[in-house]
Amino acid sequence: MPNVNATVKKISALTTVIAFLIVSAFYTVFYFYPVGKVLNYGTGFSTVSRVFNSSATWKVIWFTTWQAIVSTFISVIVGICIANVFTKFEFRGKQVLKALAIIPFVMPTVVVATAFISVNDFLHLNGTPFSLQGSTLGIIVAHVFFNTAIVIRTVGSIWPQIDFESEMAARTLGANSCTTFFRVTLPQLKTSIFASASLAFLFTFTSFGVILLLGGLEKATLETEIWRYATQRTDFETAATLGIIQLVIIIIMLAVNTRSRSLITPAKKSAAAYNRSNYTNPRLIRLRLTSCIVFITGFLGLPFAILIERSLSASNGYSFQYYKQIFLESSERFSIFGTRRAIFNSLLWASLAMVIATILGLLAAVLMTHKSKKISRSSDIFLLLPLGTSGVLIGFGIIVGLNTSILDVRSEWWIVPVAQSILGVGFVSRIVSTAITNQDPELKQAAQTLGAGPAKVWWHIDMPIVSRSLVAGATFAFAIAIGEFGATAFLARPQRPTIPTAVFNLLGRPGAATFGQAMALSVILALITATAVSLLERTGQVVGNEI
Amino acid sequence: MLAIVLVPALSIACSSSNKNSHETKPECLDNGDSTAITTTELDKANASGESIDLVVYDAFLAPAGAFESFTQETGIAVNILTTADTGTMVSQAVLTSGNPIGDVMFGVDNTFLCRALLNKVFTPYEPSTWNQLDNDLKLDQFARVIPVDYGDICLNYWIDQEEIQPESIKDLTLEKFAGTLVVQNPETSAPGMGFLLASIAIFGENHWEQFWDDLRKNDVAVRSGWTEAYYEDFYNGERKIVTSYATSPIAEYIFADPPVEKPPTGIIEDSCFRSIEFAGVLRGTDSPVASAMLIDFLTSTYFQELIPETNFVLPANTHAKLPDTFLNFLQTDVEPVMISPDLIERNRNDWTERWTQIVLR
Q: Three-state SS across A9-25?
C-alpha cells in the first residue's frame, strides 16, 4: 500500500507541475506581460495624482462598483430561481427552454440595446421613472438579462449532484421548504453560487457596450472611461492609471469572494434537527413553476421575440426574404457583407477558442483545487483577472507587447481565438473547480482503498463529475467567442467576416434590407448558439452517464 | 462630372480660410521630417512575392475582387487587418509608431490627422497618381498621407410630402422642429463629431454654444453611435432628422426593400462637414516599395471607381467616374464646411467637454 500511495503522490505532484507550467506560460505570454506593459504607462506620479485628485474619478469608481454589485445580486437571485425550476421539475419543453436561456449571453450588445429600446417604446416607458434608456435602471436590467445565464448554468451544473437525501430528511422531519432551502440546499450550492457571482460581477464591472449604448457617456464607468482616454483621446497614461484602479478593485473583490465562501460552513448535518410542521402546498409549487416560466419567456424572451419579429417583417408582410438574402448572397450589393462565410467562420473560430479554453481551463482547475490553500486561492484570483481587465488594455497590450524582434505575433490569424480563450479559461476553470471541490472525498478514498489506481480513480470518479461542469464551462467559452466579447475588438484582425462583424457592418449602412438582414443574422447567431449548447449538453450527459 | 467634385471643393477652400482666424502656427502640417519613399521600376519588380498588411477601421469593406486584382498585377499579397473605430485605429498606430502592426494604414480622417502626424506615424510617399488627386483634399503637402476619398457628414431627413421640410441648419432651433432631431455624442461617434465641428464652423466660436443650448431646449436627442441614432430613432420615424452622411440617401436607395424609384431621404445642404479619409505608409514597415505600390493602387482610377458603392464615399481621384446611382442621386449643391486639422487637434477635448456641459448635464 505505501508504494501505491507514493506513486499517487508523485503523479499528482507531476500533474500539478505540468499544469502550472502550461497555464502560467500561457497567461504570462498572452496576458500578464502585454497588460503589464500597457499598465506601465499609468505609473507616472503626476498622472496618478491627477487622476486621484479628480472628483470625477471617485464618482466613476463608485458608480462602477455599485451598479456591478446590484446587477450581480439580482442576477444571482433570478438565476437561482430558474436553476431551481430546471433541476426540480420535469416539464415539456424544458430542454428547449434551457438551451434558450443562454441566448441572451451571446447576443451582440447593439442588437440587445435596440431590442431594449423597442421594449421601452412598446411599454411606453419613456419619460417615466422606469425608462430603460439613458438610465441606471436600464443598465442594471440589461446586465441581469445578459448575466442570469451564467448563474443558471453554473449553479444548474451542480444542483443535480447535491445530496438530495438530506433535503428529503429535513422535509420528513418537518422543515418547510424555505427552511430546507436555506439550511440544507443553499449551503451545498454555495461554492457554485459564489463562483457564478464572481463571474457575473467581473462581467458587469467591466461591461462596455451596455453602458455606452443604454447609459451614454453620462453614466461613465471605469471601462468606458478607459476606452475614452485610450482610444478617443490617445491619453494612455490616464487610461492605464484607471486600468490599474480597475484591477486593484477586482483583486479585492475576488479575495473577498474567496474569503466569504470559506466563511459559510455547510449546515448539512444540523438541518435535520429542524422541526416545524408545514407541508408543501402543491399550489405553491405550481405557482413557482409558472412564474419562472413566465419570467424566462417574458423577460429573457421578449427582446428575442422582438428581434424575430423584425427579422421577418418585410415591406409586404412577414416573409423569410432576409434569411434568403443571407444564405444566397444573391446580388452583388449584398455580397460585400459576406454573410454566408460569416456563419462558417464564426462556427470555426468559436470552436477553436472553445477547445483551447477547455484544455487550459481543465489544467487550471487542477491548480485551483490544489490541496495547498495558497496555490488554490491565488490561482483562483489570478486566473479570473483577464475577465476583470479592460478589453481595450488587453487588446492594446497584445499590440504593443507581443512584438519582439524574434517573433511578431500581433497580426497572426490565431491571435483572435487565443485572445477569446483567455477569457474562456476563467469560466471553464471556475466552473470545473467548483464541481471538483463539491464532490464527496469519501468516494475517492474508498476507491483508492479498494485498490484503484489514480488514473482509474480519475476516470471513474472525477471524470463523470467533472464532465458536466466542463461542458458548462466549454459552453461559455464557445459563447464568449461566438458573441465576441472583450478584448478581441481591440486587436488588429484579418478581415474575415464573422457573424458579429457582419451584423456590425450591416447596421452601419442605411437601408431596409441591411437592417432586416442584421436582425435575421442575429437570430441565426442565437439559434446556432442554442443548438451548439444543447448538443454540448447532450454530449456531457452521455459522457457523464456512460462512465 | 467635374462639377460635382469641384463645387464642394471650392467651398471648402472658402470656409476653411474663414475658419483659420486663430492665427496660431499650425504645427503638424508644417514639417515633414522624414525622407520620402522613392521607387524605381526595378524595385517594383523585386517587390513581387512580398506580402503586406493594410490596416483599416472596422466599417471599411473591401470591394469584391479589388485586392485580388492588385495581387495579380504586382505579385504582392495584401492582408487586410481590421481594427476598431478610427480613433482606436489611430491610437493603436500612435502606440506602435515606428514599429507598426501593418504596412499601410487607410482611413485616418481630417479630425484625427494631426494626432497621427504629430506622433510620426507615417513615412512620406508621393504616389504616381498625385496630380490626378483633388488639390483641395491634399491637406499634407509632404505627402505623408494621401487623400483616398471624401464625404460629407450632413443632417438627413425623411422626404414627406405632407410635412414641412427643414431647409437650413438654422431651422432646427425653430419651435416647429422641436423634438425632431437626433444626433450622436461627438466623443463616441465620428458623425457626431462632424456635426459638432460643422456647428462650430457655421456659427463661429462665439455662437455655437448658443446654438446647442437652443437645440437642447428644442428637445434634441443624443445617442452614442450612428447605428443607434439611425435605426432606433430615425428609421422608425420617431425622429425626422438625423446626423448621417450626404451619401446615406443613396444607400437607402441601393438597399431599399422593395426597390424604390428615388431615395426616401434628403439632406440639409448647409449642415455638412467635409470629412476626408487618407492612406499612408506606416513608418517602420519592412516593405516600403510594396507599400508605396499599394498607395498607388488605392488612388488609382480602378480602385477609386469601386469604393463609392461599397463604402459610400466619393473618390479623391478626379479622373474616376462615379457610378450611376451617385450621378443620379448625389445632391450636388452642398456647401460643406471644414476646420483645419491642427485646430481640431488643439481644441477637440475642450469642445467636446463644453458640448457635454451644454447638452448632457
A: HHHHHHHHHHHHHHHHH
Residues of B in contact with A117 (CB under 8 A): 228, 232
pLDDT, tens only, A194-233:
889 998 999 999 998 888 888 877 788 999 999 999 999 9
- Considering only CB atoms, which chain B residues are within 8 Å of A490? 83-84, 88, 92
Which residues in A lie closer than 8 A to residue B56 (C-beta atoms)? 495
Q: Structural domain boundaries of chain B?
A: 2-150+275-329, 152-273+340-359
- Chain A residue closest to B118 (CA)? A234
The residues pairing with B274 across neighbouring beta strands, listed in sequence order, are: B152
pTM listed for this prediction:
0.89
Which of A209-223, A329-343, B8-22, B74-88 is least confident? B8-22
CATH number of B152-273+340-359: 3.40.190.10
Q: Is A228 on the interface with B (CB under 8 A)?
A: yes
What CATH class is the domain A2-546? mainly alpha
| Amino acid found at A527 | L
Q: What is the dihedral of CA A84, A89, A92, A97, to 10 degrees?
A: 10
What does B198-248 look like in DSSP terms, one character per residue? HHHHHH-TTTHHHHHHHHHHTT-EEESSHHIIIIIIITTTSSSEEEEETTH
pLDDT band at B129 (very low <50, low <70, confident <90, very high): very high
State how far the alpha carbon of B76 is from the alpha carbons of A33, B38, B44, B52, B71, in Å: 34, 18, 10, 7, 5
pLDDT in tens, A78-89: 999 888 888 877
Fold entry, domain B2-150+275-329: D-Maltodextrin-Binding Protein; domain 2 (3.40.190)
Residue appearing with cell numbers 479559461: A425
Task: Say if residue B4's pLDDT is above 50.
Answer: no
Interface mutation vs chain B, best among A219, A413, A414, A509, most B CBs within 10 Å: A509
Query: How many other C-beta atoms can be found within 10 angstroms of the C-beta atom of residue B237?
Result: 9
Q: Is A216 on the interface with B (CB under 8 A)?
A: yes
Q: How confident is the model at residue B5 (pLDDT cuts 50, 70, 90)?
A: very low
For CA atoms A159, A436, A541, A530, the dihedral sign is positive
pLDDT tens per residue, range B137-194? 999 999 999 999 999 999 999 998 677 789 999 999 999 999 999 999 999 999 999 9
- The beta-carbon neighbor of A315 closest among B248, B255, B257 is B257
The reply to whether domains B2-150+275-329 and B152-273+340-359 share a CATH topology is yes
- Nearest by CB to B58, from A213, A216, A504: name it: A504
Contacting A residues, span 246-275, partner chain B, CB-CB under 8 Å: none
Contact A510 B99 (CB under 8 A): no
Q: Is the pLDDT of residue A267 over 60?
A: no
